[in-house]
Amino acid sequence: MARYIYGFEGIGPCHYISNDLRPFITQIVKWRYPLKKLLLATAVAALSVSAAHAAPTVYGKAFLTLDYVSTDYDAANKTDEDTFKLNSNASRIGFKGDDDLTDTTKLVYQLEYGIDVDDDSQQFRSRNTYVGLAHNTLGTVLAGRHDTPLKLAQNKVDVFNDSLFDIKNAGVSGEYRANNMVAYQSPVIVGMPVSFMAATALSETDADGDILVSAASGAKPAVYRDRKVKDNGYSALLAYDKNGVYLAGAYDKDMGANNVNTGVIDNTWRLVAGLDMGKMNMVSGLTLGALYQQSQYYDNYSIVNNNRVNKASEDEKSWLISGKYKVGATPWAVKAQYVNTTDEKGVKDADVNEIAVGGEYAFNKATTGHIYAGQISRDNNKDDLIVGTGIEYKF
Questions:
Q1: Residues 19, 149: one domain?
Q2: Which of 45, 150, 324, 337 could form a disulfide with 252 if both were Cys (CB 3.0 to 4.6 A apart)?
């Protein structure tokens, strides 16, 4: 019987094959190269499936400043202070992405956590963290923890955002990130550069009765706040944004934390205007901002001799003006801001004033240096003189 030699990969050294098996082996050899092509196509398809479920985008920010704060107290029994402190300002790390569900709808998600760059006291605090559905034409629905629409209305008029001169440090309320929030974000309304956002923050449980502020002590009656212990919150925003003109109006109802310390605001409404003078073909590099808002606080009350005695709260009013100028072709930008709040937290004559100036130096697209100085004054309380510098890196 004649013998032939066939040698090919996968079988090992050459083997002697009988004439009876020659047709069978010849066919296998013919299939070998098409089989390789099939395996390659299968691998490419597998990679395509993996790409359809792409890994999330990792992003974040490290913003570290060295701040000198000189505090001058109004009360004679308090000692003035001078401190140097290293501050981590809204530093964060996040993961976000999407996954196509249909030709028009995708699942969107984000997991964002605040971190302290300067110490380990408060690592991985939940920031904007949600899951949602986004439709090409109908808008987006989100559920989780997120900035309220009223907070988002601010846009970028606070030119000292995420620093000691952030407007929330000047008595401006409403800068909330709500738990258990369900939100809807519209697409740009057809034919108009207008968008709408609405949200509710669910209390998750029903509970009657008002918040206990302080228990009865001796002859002193208990003090209650005229707000339910558990209540849902609501927030909405309507914004116009085109050709350098930004206008927004927003409203909150019971969106603050529901506890005796901070859950005291009944409602807040806010108006915001921003002008990019460069996009308006007026002054290249110059942006201007303004904000006005009013917050109504819940009243406290006590029951004395079976009668309700109210302690009325004042309406808190805040306004802001700001400006920022990119200095020509240089990496420098200069900025200034003034904020005034009257009757902070509903307390009569508890007024706050902030004035701040600063500069930014763009080393590159990711890295910015900061310098700033200013003062935050609280009537009948204290004055804080602040000077600081820092570095901000985004990735």
A1: no
A2: 150
pLDDT tens readout for residues 248-287: 999 999 887 544 444 478 899 999 999 999 999 999 999 9
Residues 271 and 136 in one domain: yes
DSSP string, 235-248: EEEEEEEETTEEEE
Domain span at 259: 53-394
Give the helix ranges, DSSP H, for the chain: 22-52, 149-153
The count of domains in the chain is 2
Instruction: Using alpha carbons, select from 322, 380, 317, 349 the residue that is nearest to residue 173.
Output: 317
Measured distance CA(335)–CA(99) in Å, rounded: 40
DSSP per-residue codes, 99-164: EESSSSEEEEEEEEEE--SS-SSS-SEE-SEEEEEEETTTEEEEEEEEE-HHHHHTTT--TTTTST
**3-state helix vs strand vs coil in the chain, percent to 5:** 10, 55, 35
Same domain membership, residue 219 and residue 195 = yes
Residues 47 and 172 in one domain: no
